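During the first year of the project, the team set up a workflow for recording each protein of interest as an amino acid sequence followed immediately by a discrete structure-token representation. This format lets reviewers and collaborators read both layers of information side by side without switching files. As required by the reporting guidelines, we include two representative entries from the current panel. The first entry is reproduced here exactly as it appears in our internal archive.
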Amino acid sequence: MYTTAAASARSAAVAVPMSAFAVVLVVGWGVVQGVLLPRGPFTAVEAIATAAVSASVGLAAGWLSRSRWAVPLAPILFVVAFEATRWATLGEAAIWPRPSTYGLVMLVTGRGVHAVFTVVPLALGALFALVATGDGLRRRDAAAWVGRIVGAGGLAVVLFACSAIVAPARTAPVLGPDGHRLPGSIAELTTVPVNGHDLALLIRGRDETAPVVLFLAGGPGGSELGAMTADLSLEQHAVVVTWDQRGAGKSYSELDPVSTLTLEGAVADTIAVTEHLRARFGVEKVYLVGQSWGTLLGVLAAKERPDLYHAFVGTGQMVNLPETDRRFYDDTLAWARATGRDDLERDLVRNGPPPYEDLFAYEDALSHEHKVYPYDHSRNAEGQAGFSEHVFAAEYTPLERVHNLAAMLDTFAVLYPQLQDVDLRRDAATLDVPVVLIQGRHEAPGRAEPARDWFDDLRAPSKEWIELATSGHRPIFQQPGEFARAFAERVLTAG
């Protein structure tokens, strides 16, 4: 009896420091992840490596602790350490999700993805260790069976996630009438160094010697690689280069450090990408097409370096964000009162009119556009789903598809406050390049009216306003065929 008691005492004495070491191991792994991958894994290699290390750490924690408590505690300790380190690493850029649609998106596409490759493998590793050592989970009680079922389910989730993410991104070749690749065409996904960051380009065209178009997506933080391949009308006339700007889409991994992500830097990146395209295709100038936020970026780039561009083409033209946002706020508030949306009215009144320091405050004021300004979408190509219907395009890897929405929100939160002082009526009253605005007839008044004011007073070598009948803010995607035809007939022929 004495011997047994002594042995038990010795075992307990050994178990305590081992459990402490397990805690150190798990917390240390959380700190490492918070430093190296504060936004989660960006590539399949990073994700699989993260899952493997997490499972190993969980296995060690379970084996050292020899307690069922290791299964829930290891993930909890990891999350606490990771979030604390993540906050220290990213600072104010580490936005904590809120109970809203935007908040749910951030939780799922950010923490949710990270949890699949860290938290779940940690718990599985600890569970497997307990099964392997026979400490508590070989019994036939209910808890043991629940543990086995949960473990099997978690393992299935991790294995499925790891197998799914290895699919590469690709873009389809440009095909000729015979169904084979069209000679002289170009279709590639590439990455180019731009001011210290590797940024993604989608380049497509039926003729590699055709005029070059650089497309600037909306956002900030938006990616339109999928949208640009949903309809191929524009690439019939030009080599179309769709650029994922820093922090957007396939360039999401280049977001940090956010202290260097500025409006001036975005303009400099636009000019650098343009210079790359000039060298790549041996052309003196390119055509610049901007959509929404991309119109602000494009105008400022064309103003700074007009020698690089044949023309600027704006669609969904932005001019002054505070004025636009205030009009959206007023119209949304009026709509909420007229339709009995007391909950929305209450939230809008509580937030007050924009601008806001808090990203999530914009959700109430800006996310009801399709209800406040309705029109018949049935005759356009994009439909009411907007850009979301293009998220699953082959041009993105599975992880990039998930990260797309997180990229939009994270990058928006950094750049949008910097745009509050921009007013093209003041900052770009003169442009030394031809300007063509291809607008939607159903564009929201808060955007359309400032755009018209700017256009009417704009001094440029030439300017033209074109209106497409069945589109709103996104004519290039809502009426892609008509947009391409207007571009070919009114822009290329003039250039």
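The second entry, processed by the same pipeline in the following quarter, appears below.
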Amino acid sequence: MLDFGLIAEGASLLWTWQMPLAIFGGMLLGLVIGAIPGMTAALGLAAILPLTFQLDALTALVLMTSVYTGSLTGGGFLAILINTPGTPGAAATTFDGYPMAKAGRQNEALGLQIAASVIGGAISYLILLVFIQPMAQFALLFGSAEMLFLTIFVMLLIATLQRRSFARTIFAGLIGLLLSTIGTSVTTGVARGTFGLDALEDGLPIILSVIGMFAIPELISIVARPSIAPSAQGSSSDLRALLRGVRQATREVGTWARGSLIGTFIGLLPAAGATIASLLSYATASRRARPGDRFGDGEPKGVVAAESANNASEGGAMAILMSLGIPGSASTAVISGAFLLHGLVPGPRLFIDNGAMVYGLILGNLAQMAVLGVFAVIVASQVARIVTVPSRLLAPVLAIILALGAYSFRGYWEDIVITFLFGLIGYFFRRHHFTLISLMIGLFLGRQIDEDFVRFVILYGDDPAALLSKPIVAVFAVLSLGLLLWQIRSAWRSDRP
């Protein structure tokens, strides 16, 4: 049930002069980031994370999620205008958005996309508002053994979703677990892998590691290109066509309702995210096509289906992050770093200890949706000019920001080295098709798993089978075994002549 007292308290936390600036500024920045090919939400979030040091926790998190929300919508602009998704989640938008643009209906398509994004995001956060409390209460049932088996299941799930990269994904997760052991052991007090450096005594800084892994590879990708979008051409905005697209999107109730629910559910799955959500929603809509629908050739329902699911995945991803502490995407990984930076630990205790702030964050995200439409219309009319910024100007500025942010985190020069070393690791892993999400989860949860495993040995070392008497452990054990057997079966069938 909803706790209206906590909701009211959370709403009161939003009444500061900084909050509108965080929402407006973050939304505008996110839309710009999403509209730049190769400038992913994770890179943008990593770049602004140092700017949140001096903000209070709620303002900082609302700023980060505003950038996240804006980037998911902004990614659809280029998908429509030049057939280039600004973010991976906008890939499905190209299927019908770009044909509409080629037919001279680009403004109508932008209106469809903006309205669907606002509706999908709002629905996902309304679902989160209603269900965050029972999710948090359920998460409290997770002890050491449950978290250990949950982690095993998540690793196997991510690996299964990768299909042909199953072994690489498992390997990446194990590497993350090993890297998490660097620092002074919580259980034994022995320093491990510190090389005598004070900067490593408390372990690898998670925030900087995540920033390096996801931001630096994107910077390298940008540098490798002579310009961000050399084919982009300026285009005039037709406000009436934009508004016509908005009205048309609101009438496609079945399409955006189905897309929003699909996006929210897929967002709950680690490593699935906006891309899979939008593709699945589009595929579902196309299968339900009526005579006269022209999916793939400029069908408005295709744009609505893809974009409603794209933005709705944000609410699902935030739900799993806040309730279980599992970041399901690169963007939520950086946002989890913002939680840690402000002394908040995403997971089962977050809602219990900071319920008002959690509700404040959800309400702040709903407020973002009210603002999104207006800002998206403004940015959509100017996006063609933004994407012509040369990469030789953008990349150095971002690199300097990342370096300054890394140093200002703790004042250690080693932190700059750690950030860029993880950037090289991230680049190597991405180039050779290893899953960074798996590495990040292993690194993020490794220290907790270390503690949980010690408790597991102490409590169940003599009788490991007793674990199966715990319902949640038994469920995750069965699910993990099922995933493993399914993967083995799939590999065996694919190898048969």
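For the second entry, the following points were noted during internal review. Strands lie at 183-184, 191-192. The chain has one domain: 4-495. Both points are flagged for discussion at the upcoming steering committee meeting.
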